[in-house]
Amino acid sequence: MIAGPLSTDAWESFLAEQLQRVVRVSYSRARNTPVEAVFEGPVMRLRLHRFFAGAPESVRGSLAAWLRSGRRARRASTELDAWIDAQREALPPQKRRRPRLTTAGTHHDLAALATELFATEFSEDFIVRRRPATTWGRRARSQARRSLTLGSYDPHTHIVRIHPTLDSAKVPEWFVRYLLFHEILHAALEHEPACDGSHRFHGSAFRRREEAYRDYERALRWQNRHLPRLIKHARKGSPAPQAVDRRRRGIQAWLFRL
Predict the structure, then answer these.
(1) In terms of pTM, does the model score above 0.70?
(2) What are 52-59's contacts with CB under 8 Å, separation 24+?
(3) Which of 54, 164, 205, 251 has the highest local Cβ count within 10 Å?
(4) For domain 110-236, which architecture applies?
(5) Domain assignments of the chain as residue spans, ordered by start
(6) How does DSSP classify residue 161?
(7) What would the pLDDT profile of 166-180 be if each residue is shown by its tens digit?
(8) pLDDT tens digits, residue range 60-75?
């Protein structure tokens, strides 16, 4: 019998005796995978959440039975699952990590463009309310084939993101500025009500202000002309091309999520 909190050495001795094999145990703070076993030849490498240091004797036996027989050990599996769920619920809430914001691109500086917008188009919108933060999105290969989300606003984090494929010398600064305008406008009119009392994503007030923006028509034309090539390079995870295809193609292109 093992009394008190279990060290990793104590777990290794206990499980080696129960499973008749070499076991190497380490503790982690992984809530989503509180138990993770990896086999390296005759050695089992086992990662357990730190709350397993306080596992009672019955749970210790259930873990050993589960590692030996998997879900075939039904009673052990049920007890182990119930105990893990209880331990998770007792854990303190996780602190939300502050998103990493990157505004300075290789070719376009989102912070400078946003500062200009807040001083002009949005000079009256964020006097009391907090301004949204801006950042380039994470560079990764896109799965898009016929559309691409070039900009987004997250009302939960209050962050505007611009697709990193637009950080290119071949993408006009005025176009990036328009994308920022569009997404910041969502933050400015976040609570615009609809006739039925709900909230509208592109309501009448939004459309009036967007259509009055100085580069609105030009931005839509540029978008329709160049989006196919932007999609291609987003799929590669690279910035916009050095030579943008100017041919129109039969692709329905949506600049923003509906």
Answers:
(1) no
(2) 52/6, 52/11, 52/27, 53/5, 53/6, 53/7, 53/27, 54/5, 54/6, 55/6, 55/83, 57/1, 57/2, 59/83
(3) 164
(4) 2-Layer Sandwich (3.30)
(5) 8-90, 110-236
(6) E
(7) 888 889 999 999 999
(8) 999 999 999 988 899 9
